[in-house]
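Figure 2 data, in text form.
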Amino acid sequence: MSTATLATPTLTPLQSAAADYIARRGIRAFMNEDYNLTGTRVRALVTDENADLASAFGLPITSDTELPVAIDKKEIHAAIEGSRRSSNRAELARFFADDANVPSLSFGQRMFLEWHYRSPNNYQFTLEKLLRGSEGAARILGWNRETELKGRGDFLFFTGLLGCTGLCAVAADGSVYMSHWDEVRNPRQFDGYGQFASRHPGGRVYVVGVTSRDLAKGLRERHPDLEILYHVKKIYFERTYTVAFSRTAGKVEIKVHEADVTDDYVSSTHNGEYGRWFPYGRFGEAYPSADDEFRVCTFERFE
């Protein structure tokens, strides 16, 4: 009696090149190389070390190209814009979604990578995944987004903050809400929470960010009886927070991972000088570390 075996999915050339580079240099080196090759500010330097990856991305080099070679940003964009760039991102999103390809990464780290490659250029995208079999209970929020979950089940929500503000709420009935908005006291953040509170009143709200006290004050004006706690992120442009808002077996936690972003991202991203910008700095810098490097966030009560 014969037994059927499942075929191992074949990696694309880009996925294979990514796997090889990560095995040799690590995940952050891969992310920075991707950024330097495909989102270069002026020109990309292709060497023996990164030539296979550059070729897999579709940069204009061949086996006859003499290395090292500096390729102008305009040449790179002419070669990989449009459908090629879209297919590259789609392939890498699928690659990182499969834990067999990157077994050393945590669930959250793989989610961040999949979210990064699936997101549009402005990162206004929410990725939803399964968490321990519970549909849609794991989510990553991009810029100017919000999400909620009814009931008292387990969940794991992430967002990354530079100058924006994150709001995490647990209603009296156990339903939860998370939002990420820019600006000081953004009216859309008040409106979003207000709509949630109209369906799921009471409970407690946590606010995290540089302007968290301002947002807490606005919430108090609109919801005088609400319990509000806030955490002030003290450094704006040079540090990111990854906020992890979770509930496991009834226990709610809010943890943060801090990362310094000190590269040339401030002028380059805000002036649109890269092919794809990331609002919190170079992704390799802002990308969160392993779960054990998150710390429990400390809050002050807003009176």
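Caption note: The radius of gyration is 21 Å.
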